[in-house]
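It is worth pausing here to work through a concrete case rather than discussing structure prediction in the abstract. The textbook approach is simple: state the sequence, then state the predicted structure, then interpret. We follow exactly that order.
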Amino acid sequence: MTDKDPLEGLDAVGWAGLTHAYGPAADVPVLLRELRAADPERREKAVWELYGTIFHQGSRYEATAPAVPFLLALAADPGTPDRVEIVRMIAALAIGYDEAYLPTGVPIGDWRAEVATMRTADPSEVYREYDAWVAQAEDDGERRSREFRRKIFDFDASRTSAECELAAYDAVRAGVPALCALLDDPDPALRAAAAYAVSWFPESSERALPRLLDLLATEPVPGVTATAIVAAGLLGDTSLTGRLRTFLSGDEPLSRWAAATALARLGVADPEVIGELAACSAEPPEQAESVIAFHEGDLRGYASDSLALLDDQVPAEAVTAVLDGLSHASGPAAFTITAAALRLTFGAERLPSRPPYEDLTEPQRRAVRILAELDEDTWQWVNFTQILRAWNLPDQREECRRYAGLPRGLPELDAVALGVGDPAEAADAFHVLGLLGHVGALAAELCEHGVQVADPEVEHGLLGAGTEVVGPGLERREDGGTRLLVPQAVLFGIEAETVAVPGTQSRRVRSADEVSTDSEHTFHTAILPAPAEGRDQTW
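Step two, the predicted structure:
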């Protein structure tokens, strides 16, 4: 333990004059002190409440950035318990949910430009653009959704939220040296958390990248090595290609997965990279240590997302592997791979009209059949049906089954995924993928986790202060763990219509259908039409 109190100066901050999701932030110093409590239940409760106040459903507030230096000091002090959780919280405060930036990394230049534009924007012009966007709705359902979003849009709240988000990011960026120091910690989980945390700061890559590469030279724990490889890929450029290839051709499955995702991010699309990503989309390597935090540990989802990034360079056999994985998905584990499979089979553009099923290509027909056969635990989520709507596919299970020519009732099994379809076709797929890379047991298994496809014409990043989701929106638990997602049945009489543009960089779906924590203001959101590419838009 260091001699210096990591919370020194905590009471000098005017917390009561700052706000978080539930109003004045006077409770934040109490919660920060509770992170050092001897009782683990008290610490767990403090983590839960910090996520719920200064990181409420991914939003950041006036009190978020001032809390960051104290969290960094706690993480740096070996006497602080649960430092892994604190470092992961620090990363969340910087970027929100990481699927918004994967697999390409944080486009910080675009982010800063957006906030600068917002600071000088004319609110009346913004509202006129919003009205024009409402008028462009293609049907009554879409128009109702857009009118609802227009009604609850608050430019001032959106601008404040945007500034708080960037301020939190910059507060964490100032702590990159402290995070880099944790790469040498004896605890492998803390080393992995630190590598994950520094991966979001391309402006600090000159400091962080050499430390990550040093870690790769000595790290004995596969999960930590994999995390450092992915982090290096997010911060580096093509000069790293040779170094990363040594891991792609190695014997450790986690390192091969990580190297393939990193190389794909750098634009490398050769057979070995594609083959490894295809193999991991069908059956990802196991994590013995469970320290990989990217996509919340969803290696399959990350692999399929990386394949979709390569898009038209992906051969049919790799698409088959992704569909094999999709056929075994269920619940929230279906989201990421659904979006990847649809981009790979239908392309990045929304279908202008839904063609007859018979006019689809065979990969497209198989994708639709698999989606129609997924269970109710998948179809109950608005998050899932929004992804289908993004490609203009049926967003009701029975309608999708009718479209695919499937009977009502129990889903049929996907013959090709089970290896009982055309033997020649299956054998050919396996043969080619075997040449491409480490295919392993490509005979169809499982699939995991999810990204969300960004709202197409209204890319939005910041929901206003203090919101409780009752509409579509993947949410992290207030303790920072698994997400809380919203079944369609929870919607409160509002159609969750959205017209999403598939394949945009931004993937996070945020809902206008939200109830504020402020009972006097039913809705506070920040949504604005912004057809720019890049990170989730802030207005």
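Step three, interpretation. DSSP finds 23 helices and six strands in the chain. Residues 155-173 form the longest helix (19 residues).
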